[in-house]
Amino acid sequence: MTALVPAPGPTVALAALSRSHERQAPLPWLAYRHTAVLTSAQILSVIGLTGENLPVGFALGNVDDDAPHTIMVVGEPRDPALAALAGARLANVLDPLITNEVNGSHPLQLWVDGSGTVDFLHAWTFRLRSPWLPGPLALVPHLATALDRAKDAHALLRAILTAAKIPGNDVLVNAVEALNDHFVFPLGGEQEARQLPVLLACFAHAGAPVTVPGLATTAVGLIETIEAAEQVSVSAAADPDWDNKTLAKALASFKRLRRRTAKGNPALLVDPTVIERAAKLSGLTFDVTSALSQRHLAIAQAVRLLRALPALPGLDRRRGNAAYRSHLQLQRGLAHERAWRDFPSVIAAGRDAESDAELTAQAHIDAVRHDRRAFAFAESSGQAAVARVLAVSADGRAVDLELARPVSPRSNLNWWWLDDAHAEAIIGNLEVLGGPSAGRHARLTVTAQMRRLAANPALLTGRDSIRLVCLDDTRPRRSYWPRAGGPARFGAQPAWPTPINFSVLDS
Q1: Residue-wise pLDDT tens digits, 290-300
Q2: Which residues contact 214 (CB under 8 A, 6 or more apart)?
């Protein structure tokens, strides 16, 4: 899970994209980093056959290193024996990482390049769920052990992928999505077309200390730079040209050398020494290692770009709120649960959905409270407002407001004072008044905490301005007044003449 902020409206997105095109450079979308970058974070890079969910190799490395510390060259991934050995190696790599997370010694965080790799890992788990060996090879002792460990890898991967769906835990982070959440890029089209090399090329063109792996020269113009970066592949699927010209040739040579060395002996065919030697002599080790190193470097540079942003206050608390449920899933992986249940019971699913909604709401509140850009997103969509309090009625039920800008509320119900430090929020229904100053004056009909406000009106009147939002408040509330008012209004909102004053936000 990456940044959890209120989504900006289309008008705001177009205005930001226009500014990015004018400057021909990525611009900050948020003032803070809303995704945790842990010191113990690891980069998981994968390379597979084009069009198939079969790995040719995978690597693991530290985010501060330019090269991975662990590289596994699978060889021929369609070979059941080599597939079992790859799954066993993956289990040996993931087991200590998850153990450290559950024990609290080193938090778990894996970075991958994009959604394609996440989908690849999920599809790979189906291959690992029921691996098999042909008759003669089933009797080889080390293969029988590897086959059992491959099933453990299925549980470990499923545990990570399931835990990653819990809002705010940042166990598995998609680098492309994280960059797009934090920066506006001078690009058109859908986000799915924005590959990691293209995003890095935009930074490199703007003068950032970034190199795009696999891109020998950087063109002078932005368009030429992007077009050149589009030919570079660092995702799980190999580039078809590289696959056909380089990888297929090395794999064919690997299979030929392996069979020649084994001389018909099934035991030698799966001997680790024979496999390693055939991979080196065929050039497969060099090709796969080079590709995995490029992928690792690209992801590492994306992490460093994000880490340069100041962290949003409360990221550690956000991870802590999601830790219990995350640990439950990771413990299932450590227990090597074979019959992994993808669909929980209705009661458990409902409970998890309620918890997800609460975690997301709390993350949204933290975002708009601490990040002025995130607050501006909520304001542009009619979910937040800045106002000056003109008067508070004697009973604390009515608060007259002068809005800093015209507001078309997305919902009239349950507006509350964002910066109130009290355990229970002052909540009310917002009505924008007409008249000569239509849209600039409003009345908040308080439905909770009226007695506290009536006893001390200076809570609001003693401030130059207050921030109101209608986002879900996760604090306990008690209503003193029926929640009357017009129905919530959803859908398209009228465009602001100037949705967000970016020059003020940049200052």
Answers
A1: 999 999 999 99
A2: 197, 232, 233, 234, 294
